Amino acid sequence: MFIGAQVSLYPMTSDFVAVITDGLEALTSYRSDLRIETDDMSTLMVGAPEALFAAIRDLFAAAARRPEHVTMHVTLSRGCPGEPDDPSCRCEALERAQEQGLAERQALAAEAVTGAPVAGVEIDVQFSLYVMGGGDHMEEIYGCIDFLKKSGTFLRSKNFCTRLRGDAGAVFATLQQAFLRFGPAQGHVTIDLTASANSPSLR
Amino acid sequence: MFIGAQVSLYPMTSDFVAVITDGLEALTSYRSDLRIETDDMSTLMVGAPEALFAAIRDLFAAAARRPEHVTMHVTLSRGCPGEPDDPSCRCEALERAQEQGLAERQALAAEAVTGAPVAGVEIDVQFSLYVMGGGDHMEEIYGCIDFLKKSGTFLRSKNFCTRLRGDAGAVFATLQQAFLRFGPAQGHVTIDLTASANSPSLR
Fold first, then answer.
1. CB atoms < 10 A from the CB of A37, how many?
2. Of the candidates A27, A156, B104, B169, which lies 20 to 30 Å from A54 by C-alpha distance?
């Protein structure tokens, strides 16, 4: 299994370079657990989902605590058949999910969101979950939407995506659960995610 | 068939509201062909691919012609089983694709990129193409990557995505062909796309 993300931070300020550089410092404590490589368009992070989602959450929460409007785009992927197997990406939740029915996975997902740490910063997210390959992928999508609606972070459905709102801790816990608990455990699942904080449109 | 996109423009300047508002004016001439609705996170565009890709291209090209660093995120979708059929999204290229083999579709895609209009502005893009449902989705993905490598806009492969670089006209023509010519003609296909212009990292 290969699990990772391409992450881009977009601060809507002329001082964006400093905000991005500061934000990347929030990743320091994750560099032992994740492979992290930055180029001119995004930062690649590869590793197990616990560290991966915590790193992305901390990066965005750090930027969102500043006064400026900031957004982030993340492309998450697990199980892509074109990527090599990587032992550092091992994930117990995924391994166990193979023997769990949809209802059990929904309950475990809800529990994880309830127990999420509080980051102390409100954020908006919209995202799409994609389940590739055979099988009834829409059943898994609808099962995930059902979990999202009860997660406490659900804002509304939009065309092509779902809006979440809440504390960064709960919102990223919701995203992590959507990514891990739905779709085939060994299949190819991706998320296309946009986060936003301090938007003047909401003032 | 339902075809559309959620589009967000991110100007890396403290004057971002003016850049976004100016950018949305580039959409004026497309409002008769597309359904266009803006909220605090993105602009929904629904309609046939010709107008849809031209509108997204013109929006980004207008912002990229300014001096500031600007990025854009787009979630494109066609054939999502959760969306209603919409006659305004009818697309002849998709209808014909049902009877065309992979090699023929690759040739038509290459031809369309060669004939693309020149926008006069250089941009960078990275994107992922997702083909949902049964069948050998990786064969279509590899067929698309083969087209991309010969398109003249291919820069390099990255984990989870492909980098393109070139004139905005050729780059968006490449993206439109990837979206329409690969994956089942009546299936659910999406693109997760990030565009960038005037990045200080490239100076």
1. 12
2. A156
Cross-chain residue pair A40–B194, CB shorter than 8 Å: no
> Does A130 contact B17 at a Cβ distance shorter than 8 Å?
no
Which A residues 17-36 touch B at CB under 8 Å? 17
Angle CA B41–A151–A191, to nearest 5: 50
The region, left, alpha or beta by phi > 0 then psi within -120 to 50, assigned to residue A152 is left
DSSP symbol at A113: H
Strands (E), B47-203: 70-78, 122-131, 154-158, 161-167, 189-197
Residue the block writes with tokens 């959760």: B82
pLDDT band at A135 (very low <50, low <70, confident <90, very high): low
φ/ψ of residue B42, rounded to 5:
-165, 170
What six digits make up the tokens of B179?
């979206």
What mean pLDDT comes out for the span A64-89?
A: 94
Topology classification of domain A3-198 = Alpha-Beta Plaits (3.30.70)
Q: Which structure tokens are listed for A165?
A: 């709102």
In A, minimum Cα distance to B15 occurs at: A13
Instruction: Tell me the pLDDT tens digit for each residue of B97-137.
Output: 889 999 999 999 999 999 999 999 999 999 999 998 766 67
| Structure tokens that stand for B62 in this block | 């207008």
- B157 CB within 8 Å of a chain A CB: no
- Contact state of A163 with B41 under an 8 Å Cβ cutoff: yes
Q: If DSSP codes are grouped into helix, strand and coil, which group holds residue A178?
A: helix
φ, ψ of residue B130 to 5 degrees: the values are -120, 130
User: Where do the DSSP E strands lie in chain B?
Assistant: 3-11, 35-38, 43-46, 70-78, 122-131, 154-158, 161-167, 189-197
Residue B97 in tokens: 């694709």
| Sign of CA pseudo-dihedral B160, B165, B169, B170 | negative
- When the candidates are 3.40.50.10490, 3.30.70.930, 3.40.50.720, 3.20.20.70, the CATH number that belongs to B3-195 is 3.30.70.930
Q: Which residue of A has its CA nearest to B191?
A: A192
Residues of B in contact with A190 (CB under 8 A): 128, 130, 160, 192
Q: What is the pTM of this model?
A: 0.96
**Are A40 and B40 in contact, with CB atoms under 8 Å apart?**
no
Which residues does chain A have within 8 Å of residue B196's beta carbon, measured at their own beta carbons?
40-41
Side chain identity, residue B67: P
| Interface mutation target, options B1, B3, B60, B75, chain A, most CBs of A under 10 Å | B75
